[in-house]
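Hi everyone, sorry if this is the wrong subforum. Our group has a chain we'd like a structural model of before ordering constructs, and none of us has done structure prediction before. Sequence below.
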Amino acid sequence: MKIAMFGKMFDEEYDGLLKDIINILRENGVGVTMYEPLWKSIAPRYESYECEIYSDYKELAESADMLFSFGGAGTILDSLPLVRDSGIPVFGINTGHLGFLSSVSVTEALTAVQSIISG
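Answer:
Right subforum, don't worry. Here is the predicted structure as tokens:
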């Protein structure tokens, strides 16, 4: 299984959450690939993390089984062109304001990721 990460801007206050999610995925043998603009915005704070990068629909569709979208409803909407008709499900983690399209809140995210891994 491989999870793609998507987000537009990522506040430092969520670094712990993202690192925990990446660690949980890797500990369970799940690959991680990250949207290039997101990676560029967080890379200085994630020096010890190596990550595959994707920048467009084709790369995402060829490599990921699921997309994790970090942000609010607008970010989820922005992620949809990347999955298009690929059948890749989008899992929204609300790090935005309203988050009415998000699957889970920040406080529920780690439990939800464990549930995804376990099927």
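For your construct planning: The first strand starts at residue 2 and ends at 6. The two ends are 11 Å apart (CA to CA).
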